[in-house]
Amino acid sequence: RPGAAPGLPRVAPLLSSVPATPRSVPARVRGSLPRWLRGSLLRVGPGKFEFGEDRYNHWFDGMALLHQFRIENGSVTYRSKFLQSDTYKANSAQNRIVISEFGTLALPDPCKNIFERFMSKFEMTAMTDNTNVNYVRYKGDYYMSTETNLMNKVDIETLERTEKVDWSKFIAVNGATAHPHYDPDGTAYNMGNSYGSQGSCYNVIRVPPEKVDLGETIHGAQVICSIAPTERMKPSYYHSFGMTKNYIIFIEQPLKINLWKIITSKIRGKAFSDGISWEPQYNTRFHVVDKRTGQLLPGMYYSKPFISFHQINAFEDQGCIVIDLCCQDDGRVIDAYQLQNLRKAGEELDQVYRSVARSFPRRFVLPLDVTVNTPEGETLSPLSYSSASAVKQADGKIWCTHENLHGEDLEEQGGIEFPQINYGQFSGKKYRVFYGCGFRHLVGDSLIKVDVVNKTLKVWREDGFYPSEPVFVPVPGTNAEDGGVILSVVVTANQKDSNFLLVLDARTFEELGRAEVPVPMPYGFHGTFVPM
Ligand SMILES: *[C@@H]1O[C@H](CO)[C@@H](O)[C@H](O)[C@H]1NC(C)=O
Ligand SMILES: *[C@@H]1O[C@H](CO)[C@@H](O)[C@H](O)[C@H]1NC(C)=O
Ligand SMILES: [Fe+2]
User: Fold this and answer.
1) Could you read off the pLDDT of 193-219 as tens digits, one per residue?
2) What angle is formed at CA 149 by the lines to CA 117 and CA 206, rounded to 5 degrees?
3) How remote is the C-alpha of 259 from its chain's centroid?
4) Whose CA is nearest to atom 14 of ligand 2?
5) Which of 64, 137, 222, 266 counts the most CB atoms within 10 A of its CB?
6) Residue 221: pLDDT above 90?
7) Where does Fe cation bind (predicted)?
8) Atom 13 of ligand 1: nearest residue by CA position
9) CA terminus-to-terminus distance, the chain
């Protein structure tokens, strides 16, 4: 079985609580870091998994720990702080889990009497502001984001929270993804669901780039398009979406949010995660929205069921949209990432790993100009460089079949996730290269550079070390797509070894240097580089 590494070493130490390191500590640099590399790598992920006797159930539930690696003159300093969210403060003050998270239902206060405890089952669940997924940028400011209606604005120098922002106070949405897209002028696009008496909608959101006249935070945000789900009470879960110069591409995948289950979860004593289910009797559907007019295009694009957490890139070519995604054929992945599973060992841990479908990069081609006169039964893609097809059926739907953007060698790496590109120069454009983490384990265990044109790989790996999402930083004054470095935070469960910030030459994928930090760090989610 390709990609299955028997006898996986335990990763439990990488998914355990650590203390924060609020005062900068110097890193020990080996090799040499380029002099032009000046700025901060900011990362976030869960760093605290219990309060008092209460424990979180799911990896996604842990309290947001903010990491900052400052790089200047070839040296590196590190610090970290727990995000001072309302959730973190309330849990700390009461030394128990007060606010429910994705996989953990907060229990009623044991100090309340029986009647009060009974009644609290009927109160609305307070939404968490434990924004532990990503740093996002609106109007030049940084916010910590998860997928709820709440974001926390942070000072990226001090890592202190400065403001809590609620999407639903500005526009009719109940949340937004932690993976917005940005136009070159700073206009941000995102997507979020709204839940109302009519059921739910998927909404495309635009946030203007300027504060002048439009106000601070996300004033001026607009819903530019609302898309009705196939089933109003069972909208799809999505973690990101695609964007080209002119279009937003939304993927409605058969990972469903059962709103009845969510509404009744507290009474039934279940967490939100209980309301999400993989329903492969539905196909995956693509929706395309014109960014300028907010119009939903009439094309009904379908493919066999898959799920995608992270999109790689998308662009327009010869009347088509080309969209590249990391895809899994089975959506039963969320349960595997329960902490009790991740903390297993030996054969039991191997079983968890085998239960998760590997993630592979795939290309879909969506022809834009589809009318009643479009012929049926033949591929509508004119693209000579892609074997992806799109065929109109008798019912008018366009059936899309993907092209694999990889060879067998990627199967040996356990597939790829956490894709990143040279976003500044190549987002929404025809491109050649992306980077990601190989997954021969339940967390990333290698860094991989994929050439999507000739489908070749370059791999960095060291046994016992787990690299995070690779962040590309361009060298000033070059147009080469891979002219720059890759930054990744590499963590280990070995007591005698240090975690480190790794710097690779993005072109050759050779190590330039590493900055060892003698501080425990858990495996995290996402990050960004802010130049100085
Ligand atoms: C880096 O070098 C510049 C110029 O030599 C100097 O002004 C600056 O203080 C140095 N910064 C650090 C953190 O050493
Ligand atoms: C694939 O393309 C890259 C350029 O991105 C080149 O360096 C490499 O040699 C090519 N490999 C093959 C096998 O064609
Ligand atoms: Fe993500």
Assistant:
1) 999 877 799 999 999 998 877 788 999
2) 170
3) 23
4) 454
5) 64
6) yes
7) 179, 239, 310, 526
8) 72
9) 46
d(CA 314, CA 386): 14
pLDDT in tens, 95-116: 999 999 999 999 877 777 777 7
Instruction: Report which protein residue has its CA nearest ligand 1's atom 1.
Output: 73
pLDDT above 70 for 11: yes
Structure-token pair, residue 367:
């022809």
Residue given tokens 């209606």 in the structure block: 149
Record the tokens describing residue 138, joined without a space. Answer: 């609106």
Give Cα separations from 225 to 222, 249, 283, 344 (angstroms).
9, 12, 23, 44
pLDDT tens-place string over residues 352-384: 999 999 999 999 999 999 988 999 999 999 999
Residue 406 tokens, joined: 């990889």
Q: Which residue has the tokens 């991740």?
A: 342
Name residue 290's amino acid.
D
| Residue 495 structure tokens | 């007591």
The CB density around residue 112, as the number of other CB atoms within 10 Å, is: 12
Q: Which atom of ligand 1 is nearest to the CA of 72?
A: 13
**pLDDT for res 498:** 96
Residue 464 CA, chain-centre distance (Å), reads: 24
Q: How far apart are CA 460 and CA 445, in angstroms?
A: 9
- Rounded to whole angstroms, the Cα distance separating 468 from 122 reads 40
413 CB burial (10 A radius; 0-12, 13-18, 19+): buried
**Residue to substitute in 432, 449, 454 for testing ligand 2 pocket (most ligand atoms within 8 angstroms of CB):** 454
Q: Where are the beta strands (DSSP E) in 262-350?
A: 276-278, 284-290, 301-303, 311-317, 320-327
Binding-site positions for Fe cation read 179, 239, 310, 526
What is the CA angle 55-161-466, rounded to 5? 55
Chain segment 48-107, per-residue pLDDT in tens: 999 999 999 999 999 999 999 999 999 999 999 999 999 999 999 999 999 999 999 998
From the CA of 73, which ligand is nearest?
A: 1
DSSP string, 57-108: -BGGGSPEEEEEEEEETTEEEEEEEE---HHHHHHHHHTS--S-BTTBPPPP
- pLDDT surpassing 80 at residue 220: yes
The β-bridge partners of 155 are 160
**Ligand 1 first shell, C-beta below 6 A:** 72-73
pTM comes to 0.95
pLDDT in tens, 19-48: 999 999 999 999 999 999 999 999 999 999
pLDDT tier at 154, thresholds 50, 70, 90: very high
CA 6 to chain centre: 28
